[in-house]
Each structure stands twice: as structure tokens, then as C-alpha cells.
Amino acid sequence: MNYTENYKGVKIDVQAVNLDISEAVQAEIRASIDKLSRFTNNINALDVYFKNDGQGNNVTRVVSMRVGVPGPDVFAEERGEHWVTMLKAVTDKNIRQLQKGKD
């Protein structure tokens, strides 16, 4: 499932290879933009990638997020079991990178 939307002037591009993304996960992506916007008001785009890594019983879920801002973009990745939990973790990682960039 791939989809693109515009949320509060930010272009969201979601790519999920052979996966369906629930409304709850889509809502969490929007909440991530709200949270990131508290640390920078220059977000141009948000790219989120969902994938299952591995085969059989050794499948690991992976979420990657790239925040498009002026200058170098920030990027984070998280592995785990629950999409929403991993989205919150990559959002927090990206916030830390944005804060370091201000220093």
C-alpha cells in the first residue's frame, strides 16, 4: 500500500511493501507531524516506509522516517513488533536530531 497526502502543508509519502496500513497508523503519522512541528516549522515533506524484513518465523517489522527540512534531512529507523510504537520511537529520534541541528 502506497499513498500520498498533504497534511497542514506537509507532503506525506507512505510506502508499505505488501502491507495495508490501518487508519490508526495513518492517524499516528499525522500526530508525528504535529509533534515534529513543535521543534521546527520548516517541514516540507515526510516520507515513511513500512516493511517486513526476513522470512518465515524470523520476520522483523521495520519503520523508517525521513523528515524533509531545509538543509540536511533527518532520518531514523526502528525495528519492533507494533507499528504505532515504532512510529513514536522514530519520531522521537528525529526530534533529537532536529534539536542537535539547532545547537
TrEMBL record:
Organism: Fontibacter flavus
Domain of life: Bacteria
InterPro entries: RHF-like (IPR036567), RHF/RaiA (IPR003489)
Name of the featured protein: HPF/RaiA family ribosome-associated protein
A Pfam family: Ribosomal_S30AE
